[in-house]
Amino acid sequence: MCGGRGTRLDAETEKPLFRVGGVPMVDRVVGALRESSVGRIVAATSPNAPDTQAHLDVPCIETPGEGYVADLDAALADDRLSRPALTVAADLPLLDGEIVDRVLNAHDGGSLTVLVPASLKRGLGVSDDTTFEDGGREVAPTGVNVVGDGPDDAWLTRDRRVAVNVNTLADARVAERWL
Question: What are the residue boundaries of the MobA-like NTP transferase domain, all occurrences included (predicted)?
Answer without folding.
Answer: 2-118
